[in-house]
Amino acid sequence: MLSDFEDDYILDLLFNQLKLFKLTDAEKNIIIDSFSETKSRTEYCFVNTNNKYYSKNDVAFFNPFHSGQWCIFLYYLSNTIFISSVDNRTVCDKIYYLNRMLNSCDLFYEVNLPDIFFLDHPLGTVIGRGIFKNYFSFNQGCTVGNNKGIFPVFGENVKMLSNTKVLGNSTIGDNVIISANSYIKDTDIPSGSIVFGTSPNLIIKKIDASNYKNYFSK
Question: Is the pTM of the predicted complex or chain greater than 0.90?
Answer without folding.
Answer: yes
